[in-house]
Description:
The protein is of the alpha+beta class. The chain contains nine helices and eleven strands.
Amino acid sequence: MIIPEHLYMSSTHAEQILGPKFENERNVPSFSQFPGCMKLALLLAHERAKRDKSRWFPYIASLPPTPPNLWFHHQSREEIHRILTTEYSHINRKEREVLVEECQRVVREIEKIGENIQRSLPELGVCKDNLLWGYGMVTSRAFGDDQSEIGLAPGIDMLNHRYDANEPFPLTLKVPFLKGLAVKIQRLSLPSFKLEQIEIDPGGNWECACIIAEKDGNPIALKAFDEAMISYISSHVEDTKALFNFGFAPKNKDTS
């Protein structure tokens, strides 16, 4: 699977679209103060409010109505404790306490930001509920580095998890049209070219994200109706972080 990067929704887009609006309103923080995931969540909430007026409307309309994050579904201390002790008993008591506090802290902060923006910049369509949804989508689906750039990759972010599957990687293609056209592509003006005209070329003109069907590092052939999958969780990611962001925490390869 190959997804052109011009289809992404990224924190860079957020800075370009929302940054100026925040700079002109003194009752909200400077947009540059937000981490990448919050910038992208704000853009997602804003674009969702625009409905079919958004350039990303087909993608946003395909997203689920509720994100999977632990903090989104279970916001009371008692409920989070119950889930952790009954379904994730391998997480020790100290880690459970940290997770409970973090779940509640995140919800409080997002609600505060959403309420402030709704009050100060109502034209953006951002409110606490919309922002909670957007932040959940970003933290459970986005790729990249929160300190530099983070983005949502339509198509790839809809693949389910398997521990021994591959992770997305960048790939640059050379295709027979000018690079400038790639950022202006619309449904009715897509350039047409044959598959054999596409080349993998580090100096090419179409940056993409790629995923190859793999199992334990080896490519596998998918048959009709087989599911392509990716790995959400690398070996160094703690169970608590996976549970917090993705809503599940595989104990090991055998239980993923």
